[in-house]
Each structure stands twice: as structure tokens, then as C-alpha cells.
Amino acid sequence: MSQANIILNPQSRIPLLKSQLSAPPGPEPQLPISKSHTHPSNSKNEASTSPGSSRSPNDGSVYFIGNATTLIEWHNIRLLTDPNFLHAGDHVHLGPGVTAERLHNPIVDMDGLPAIDSILLSHYHEDHFDRAVEDSLNRQFPIITTPHAKKCLSTKTDPFTSVYAVDFFQNVTLALPATTGDKGNKKTPKIKVTGMPGKHVPPGPLSIANDLLKAVPPTNGWLLELGYENPSSGTEDKFEPGYRVYISGDTLFVDELKQIPEWLRGEKIDLMLVHLGGTTIPGPKAPLVMVTMDGRQGVQLMRLVEPDVTIPIHFDDYSVFLSGLEDFRKEVEAAGLGGKVVYLDRGEEYRFAVREGEA
């Protein structure tokens, strides 16, 4: 079910930050891209796409900033995921009696980002939407998030006014004005954002207790379908996806995730961004409960949704992470899936091509 259709104008974007509302126009910041990766099957991988090299409108990219913060760009549409820009040594509050220290700096600060079209917020947790970010954001900037997070953001003393709540299997579309495609047809570039299941707390008594105490917020995954609305299409749904990106969000490997391949009905996922870390509460020294996937569960999710390529994120930025990237790497190699994974350091990007309509 579509919740909203957001029409974008990349020539006149809504300012991301309060400080930009009154700032005079200036040159747009450029991301510090240290390396560009392409599909693992490309034998020339990094050498074939030097940072800053030109790309066609159908080329997309994922740029890794740190933790679960990425910048996804296609057709000049830019989405910022889970904005967390605290620096090493800063702390976040994650629930009653639980805090975590940031261990690594993001590769860029918020004021160093190029203009953005929307934020995708998987859930209302400080390691994904820290207080400094919240305080600095323009209240009119579009945010796509969970119903819980919308309630939190829109009922503040200084409320956010452009928040779109998306529950599991609901969607929002972001669209550009129509353009002429490679085949001479009129087409409208769109990104359809669909909420995917996720569960931040393991099932059983802890989940029941959390439903009552509301200590850990509900979370979404996301499916981004990049494609075109083609008026000449012979089908009722004129939208033709050409690339699918699944973002797991802060979930454990739970039964609810089995709904994802069922919902896709045989359609493939081209790219998965998987949140790892084996986040433990209250922390690695007293790991009473794990609330995000570790390396083993990350591989289980790869086998379940069978993405063409997987990129791990959210694995070493906070002191509550018990299972680092090396755990995932070992599980991947043991499963014989090494050729399906691309590892990004902060400041690196992955480039991909979006098909002009399904093959």
C-alpha cells in the first residue's frame, strides 16, 4: 500500500540543517571518496572506477560514512540512512541504564554532505539518530521512518513536520520529473521505499517485557526499488524497477524475516546492506542479550534473501558491539560466499548500474 508520493526537485532541495536555512548559496560540498568498488565479478574492480570518474544517470552508488550511515545516490536522488555523526569518545543512550561510546569518527560531518533529498531512519535510537543530529536538522526536512519514530519526532516541542510513517510492507515513493529514456520513451525516475520486517529484541519473555516497558524501539528494514514509471507500459502498475537494495536495519535473524522472500515472489535483491555488530545489552563485558545480528546470523540472512551482493555495515563503531567484521568475514568464507560480498571502509563507495526496466 502506497502511503505517499513525494515529488523531488534536485535543483531546489530543502536544506538539511537549520544553519543552512539562512546561509548564502555556495559551492556544494564534495564527498571524500577514497575508493570506488564495483561488482565482485568485475576482475578490474577498483581499478575500473576511479573516485570521481564520470557516470551515466543509470549508475547508482552507496557511500559508507560510518556505523549505519550511508549515502545512496541514483539519478541525482540522494538518500541519507540513519544519520549518526558523533565522534570517537562521544556517548549515546540506548535504553534504561545502557550507554555506549563511539569508537570511530564518521568519514565526513553533516555540514560536509552534498544536498540530500530525504532521510531513511530505521528506528529512533541514538546510535542511528543522535541528539546532535536531531537538534541540528531543519524541521521541514523529509524523513521516512517507522510509525513509532514519527510519533516521537512529530510530538516534540519543536516538532518535525515532514515525517512519513511506513510500516511493514507499506511504501512511499520519491519521484523526479519525467525524462526521455535511452530508448526514446518518456519515463519518470522513482525510488519506491517499502518497509521490511525487523525485530530488535529476541522473541520470548524479553520481547514481551519490552512490549510493556518499551525500552528498545521497534525497527524497520527497507527495500529500495530504483526504476522508472513508464506510461506506455501495458501493465496496471506503470512502475518498472531496475535495481533492488535491501537494508536489513537493526534486526536479529527472526522468523518474521521469512516474509521477505515470500513478499518478493521470486524477484531478486541486487544489493543488501546488512547491519551486524552483535550488539549486546548492557555490553560485551556483560552480554545478557544480543539485539542485532552477529556474523553467523548475517550469513543466515544472506542465505534467506539471496542478494546478488552484500555489503556489511554497523559492525565496529560502538562499544556495545560484540561481533566485529572479522567474525562475519570468517562465516562468509566458511559458507563459500566470499565472492558475494564487498567490504567498504569509511569513505569508500560501491557503484552499480540500474536496468532501464526489468529484463
TrEMBL record:
SUPFAM superfamilies noted in UniProt: Metallo-hydrolase/oxidoreductase (SSF56281)
Sequence ranges assigned to domain Metallo-beta-lactamase in this UniProt record: 96-315
A Pfam family per the record: Lactamase_B_2
Gene3D superfamilies per the UniProt record, alphabetical: Ribonuclease Z/Hydroxyacylglutathione hydrolase-like (3.60.15.10)
Residue ranges, compositional bias (Polar residues): 33-58
Region of interest (Disordered), residue spans: 17-58, 180-199
Protein's recorded name: Beta-lactamase-like protein
Natural source organism: Echria macrotheca
